[in-house]
Amino acid sequence: MRNLIPVTRACLLLSVLLFGHGIAAQEPAVPKAATPSEILDQLNKVAIDPAQVYLMHGVQITRGGINFYLNRGFIGFLEKVNGEITGAVFSGDGEVLLIPPNATEKASLAQFTQAPVLEEKISFAYFRFTDSTARELLAVARKPDSDDAEQPAGFADRWDPVVRQLDPIFSLRILEDLLGDRTHPYFHAQLQGVEQGVFAVSVDERAPEAVMVGAVRPSHGTAFADIWCAFPTRTSEAHAPELMRGSVRVHSYKIDTQINSDNSMEGHAELELESILSKEHILIFNLSSRLRVSEVRNELGEKLDNFQAPPPDSEETLTVGDNWLAVVLPTPYPAGSRFRMNFTYQGNVIDDMGHGVLYVGERGSWYPNRGPVGRASYDLTFRYPAALTLVATGDREEESTAGDVKKSHWVSHGEFPVAGFNLGPYDSRLRKVGKTDIEVYATAEAEAALEKRHDVAQTSKATLSVERGTGRVILAPALTPVIPLTPSALLDQVAERARQSLKYFETLFGPYPYSRLAIAQIPGHSGQGWPELVYLPTLSFLGQSEQAEMGVQGKSAEYVDQVIAAHEIAHQWWGNEVGWQTHHDQWLSEGFASYSALLYLGQQKDGERKVREVLRSYKRDLMAKTPEGHTVESGGPIWLGQRLTNSLNPNGYNDIVYKKACWVLRMLHVLMTDPATGSDARFFKMLREFITAYHGASPSTEDFMRHAEKYMTPAMDLDRNHHLQWFFDDWVYETGIPTYKLDFSSRRLAQDKYAVQGTIEQSGVPAGFQMLVPLVATFGKEKKVTLGLVAVNETGGRFKFTTKGHPAHLAIDEDDLLAVVK
Ligand SMILES: [Zn+2]
Above 50 in pLDDT, residue 27? Predict the structure, then answer.
């Protein structure tokens, strides 16, 4: 049997493979455990109870609308833990029937399984549950007797190795229910399908989208957690607002961190929390498993039982990068009550990348937190070697040095979704925009990996020459010495660009939401924009010639130089000031930041051409074909968020949520621009007022749609109902890039008066797709004028314009429309 690999929510987030660990030999069943960690231990090792193996004939159970048929075979229940059966193993002939509840999920399922409905024969199932599954199955199970042709001899021995491998993955989730709130139960089935291979069905009523069906599949040497479909159950939908808030909310973090000269860290965090679900005994936090917790205490100073994911190098490591910490409450806090927790932990989350460059790899888990869902206030104190400079999110309230230790204190004014820091032997520059300080930090040398790449590039620069006399071609190595990379040399340039983009964004989106902005270099190629702290890759601190030596050339160099920094700075408005509700809405952060960066690029010398080039390259990437022969764009609607990256579309999230979403904003911009005057004031008013309306909040796609509708022009009202549902259906909730074919003729009506009329044909998109298509006319040699927007749907579109001059050429503006024009 192939390895059974589950798809769990953690797995979805981390895209990790869960195998390759060894587990100690099975111990005999332990009596009811006293402590939560003992129960967890039992759950990690629970085996099939040989006395509880039964015959199954014609049994059906339904979970989350999915039918499981156990037609013929044996089922073995797992030993009781804490007095309960939490799992069972079925082997025989079975079937799973799943009909996704909507067109999007049907299309998603079809991508992975070639059919919009899943009707799959199964030969094996591993079930884990905290609901009524054991009771239901036991009621219809029959003990085999000697008359039965099939006997379950050896059933437990045969399946126990598989069970033991899978057990630990589900333990924590089961423990949450065993000790806490039983009103949001859990059911998971790990299935061996006859056609589809191993796949999983999960119905977790603690998640707003309780049902998740998928499989781990390899592609290009990476394992992807493919989500075939996900949707809410009736119960999880009814409780969605409360489930989205989670079981507790953190109001404030007070974190004291000491960083030693060997980069190890000792941390102390005090969290002020509020209970939301009143029955929880276990609270789960994110904390890097590289940091080990020595104690957790409540506000009375009492020690709380806790356990965390094994360290990454441990034998028992189950999931790479699994960063959970579970804290046990002796009594749950009633909903609405506030309480405090103190955490002490130590370890190392800072890596030395060579040449003095440090890397805080675990940027989101260097302190115990509940993820970026809620916002909280932060008070951070750091002590670190005096030779280093440390920058953090928040305002620097204090910085002092005593001997060889520096201390700095950072406070968030307002609530942040996250907190982070960066440190190194930095050089820095300061700029000011109004009252906002912009600080830029970089190291004198680049990290070893980049320097090595640079060395190789420089030394391999050979020259070709022709030997005089013989005419032989000679390859001579370059004699120029290798000049080390110096990121800090370009500090002024980076600082100046940051100043310009921040100033420009203020004119578009309103005041910069914070009092300062620090930009600090990190190793690698991608950046991140955290509140008041932008992480910018070393590559952004190199000159174009150095970038070129490392293979970043032409448009990419332009991109690295201007677009990355502007994108990360734009996140201060999009992502930080205005957040997003769930993964469905993350495009509101990434798409807006990407489009903001293009708007900034458009302001540069020759900017319009550069913007068009970037948009065209985005279009090319979206139209590119996957190995299966589909376009990247058809991988799924923007609304699917992180699910878009999967084994069929390894770069799906990046292409669709950054590039297509950028195009969506571009098109909204075009539609809200007055063709007669060229004014786009309406679009920017819409954006500014969106920021005002959702300052410090986390809007959904629906919220943005409702907001945009207030600013739509009469022409945009294609459905004559004052809604933009058609636009969001076309571009956000569904897939499809239309193809348009233009036919036109013009005739002179009078002196300086011409009639231009024609039709536009639409194809390549589902019926119901409609759009306003921008038409441009060229007069004389150069002069391009947007004539207007033509409403086009499946029956095509007709237009008639009157112009003063004779149009030399008429075209659909491909730079303003994500479409193929024929
Ligand atoms: Zn971004």
Answer: no
